[in-house]
Amino acid sequence: MSSKIFVPFKLEPELIEKLEQTIAGKDFSLSATAQEQLGPPRPGRPSGNLKEIAEAEIFFGGYIPPEQFAAAKKLKWIQVPFAGVNRLLTVGEIIESEVIVTNAAGIMAPAMADQIMGYVIGFSRRLPEQWQLQQRKEWGRLDRLFELAGQTLGIIGHGRIGIELAKRARAFGMRVIATKTNPAGDYPELDLVLPSRELPRLLAEADYVVMCVPLTPQTQGMLGRAEFEQMKSTAYFINIARGQVVKEAELIEILREKRIGGAALDVFEQEPLPATSPFWEMENVIVTPHSSGNFEGFITRSVELFCKNLERYFEGQPLINLVDKKRGY
Q1: 227 with 129, same domain?
Q2: Active site residue 158
Q3: Distance, CA of 46 to CA of 8 (rounded, Å)
Q4: Is there a catalytic annotation at residue 242?
Q5: Spatial separation of the C-alpha atoms in residues 106 and 112, rounded to whole Å
Q6: Are 228 and 259 in contact (CB under 8 A)?
Q7: Is 290 marked active-site?
Q8: Is the pLDDT of residue 112 over 80?
Q9: HSE-up of 160 (CA within 13 Å, CB side)?
């Protein structure tokens, strides 16, 4: 019996073909689930087929319920189709197991950097307010419209998103600074790289503060009132990381008091964002529905990366984007 590659969501025929070409001649087969209609394709959608997952050596998805992981006695490798692995690692048995985990870090970075720059331009040119004027059919001229050249963009957690973002910001003439757990190395896209302990300096200097850290026990609740109060009163906060890295209630207080210029939030403690959330009604806040990583062709690019890793797996080579399960990224 061939080993299974278990995919808990439907794939388009051309992607099925790409995977089948990659495993041709190998003693592997795709799970039937990959070709079944289970609703809209959502990477990570769990499947109830315990028989198939029990035969799986490889899993391509974002989450395995504990009862399925317990049944997956042959499982050796999990490839997550996106960057975040925090939901997968809520299953403690996965962390303690010998199963290796890889993710798709990097494939969404350009799209996320594009959206972040959209927020930055929107705030600097007051585009949300100009849109509101259009809706009211008012010909209003707003003051305090800024050029981006000469302003400072601060990136908390400089990784692949940060690299893409810094390139874009520098093209607008912005000064770009960032914190990084290990700042050693060469970062030509940055004007200044700081160790994480110098976060207060970044907060004090930046006109736009962008949160790019992964969600781990160390980063949960990383920013609260004390940190937001270190920002300029005119600065903007942008979060495309995870809602849990911010103390949301304290951010709401800061925004209500107008202690900072505003915020653009793509992630929240609870998603979908409840209709009762104050964020919906705040004039100085842009709310987007966890959309920064979405782009046309995402799942295709994710499958292409998976195929590259499959080839490396079959050849016994180190896999791309190996996750440290203890650290959470």
Answers
A1: yes
A2: no
A3: 6
A4: yes
A5: 10
A6: yes
A7: yes
A8: yes
A9: 14
